[in-house]
């Protein structure tokens, strides 16, 4: 256990559905991240939050909407997704808003879009 | 934009061998480089983090080196065991301040034969 939990672990949704992914970290960190891992592609950074403020949006389509109500929780709201959005979505956190800290990853949510 | 390449893409060796995984990056302006392990269908486990000012880090049978000038890092695994079988990912964190995310390679899929 890394101290980062994600729910649900598996999600199947239709293209017209609206769903949300949840991430919670129990490490007292101030920065949280969403990454996408598609088959045969490197992990891709999606969003970065630092002290609840979004500091990076890596050209992610608007059908993905992040929310960070506090430093311990991070959500990814999904709506009108496409089949190519099927992937493993990983959440991570790190201590400080600097480049020197280890990032700790959750187990991921396996998303399938039908 | 930082690009990270990992060679080989896959490796299968008998138990007990020492082995080296390679990682190269295009932009030497990195804060740190991190090696992760990912088991099938799971999240990432951090193995070693090398700061830009460091040359290497060691943890048990693992040793990671960093040469910023050549844009290379290696992960050395001594006396490999079947439990080492996993995908190994390297990721660089770029300089520039803020809570920037990591840029990942595609990974090396490692199989240790009993």
Q: What topology emerges from the helices and strands here?
A:
The complex is a heterodimer of chains A (114) and B (114).
Chain A: E1 4-7, E2 10-13, E3 18-25, E4 31-37, E5 44-50, E6 53-57, E7 64-70, E8 73-79, E9 87-94, E10 104-105, E11 109-113
Parallel strand pairs in A: 2-11
Antiparallel strand pairs in A: 1-3, 3-8, 4-5, 4-9, 5-6, 7-8, 9-10, 9-11
Chain B: E1 4-7, E2 10-14, E3 19-25, E4 30-38, E5 44-51, E6 56-59, E7 62-67, E8 72-77, E9 86-94, E10 102-104, E11 108-113
Parallel strand pairs in B: 2-11
Antiparallel strand pairs in B: 1-3, 3-8, 4-5, 4-9, 6-7, 7-8, 9-10, 9-11
Please tag this protein with its features.
heterodimer, A: 114 residues, mainly beta, 7-stranded mixed sheet, 4-stranded antiparallel sheet, 11 strands, B: 114 residues, 6-stranded mixed sheet, 5-stranded antiparallel sheet, 59% strand
What does this structure look like?
The complex is a heterodimer of chains A (114) and B (114). Chain A has 114 residues and is mainly β. Chain A has strands at 4-7, 10-13, 18-25, 31-37, 44-50, 53-57, 64-70, 73-79, 87-94, 104-105, 109-113. In chain A, strands 2, 4, 5, 6, 9, 10 and 11 form a 7-stranded mixed β-sheet that branches. In chain A, strand 4 (31-37) and strand 5 form a beta hairpin. Chain A is globular, with a radius of gyration of 13 Å. Chain A starts with a strand and ends with a strand. The mean pLDDT of chain A is 91. By secondary structure, chain B is mainly beta. The chains are: A mainly beta (114), B mainly beta (114). The interface between A and B is medium-sized, with 34 and 31 residues.
């Amino acid at each position: 256990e890394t101290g980062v939990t994600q729910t649900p672990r598996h999600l199947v949704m239709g293209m017209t559905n609206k769903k949300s992914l949840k991430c919670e970290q129990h490490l007292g960190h101030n920065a949280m991240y969403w990454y996408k891992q598609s088959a045969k592609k490197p992990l891709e950074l999606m969003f970065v939050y630092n002290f609840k403020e979004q500091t990076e949006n890596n050209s992610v389509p608007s059908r993905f909407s992040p929310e960070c109500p506090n430093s311990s929780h991070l959500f990814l709201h999904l709506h009108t997704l496409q089949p190519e959005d099927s992937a493993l979505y990983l959440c991570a956190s790190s201590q400080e808003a600097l480049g020197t800290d280890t990032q700790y990853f959750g187990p991921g949510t396996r998303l399938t879009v039908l | 934009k930082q690009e990270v390449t990992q060679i080989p893409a896959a490796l299968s060796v008998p138990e007990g061998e020492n082995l080296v995984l390679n990682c190269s990056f295009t932009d030497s302006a990195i804060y740190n480089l991190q090696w992760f392990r990912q088991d099938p269908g799971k999240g990432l486990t951090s193995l070693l983090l090398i700061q830009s000012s460091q040359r290497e880090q060691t943890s048990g049978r693992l040793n990671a080196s960093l040469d910023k000038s050549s844009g290379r890092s290696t992960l050395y695994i001594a006396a490999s065991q079947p439990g080492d079988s996993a995908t190994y990912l390297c990721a660089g964190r770029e300089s520039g301040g803020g809570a920037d995310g990591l840029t990942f390679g595609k990974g090396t899929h490692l199989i240790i034969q009993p």
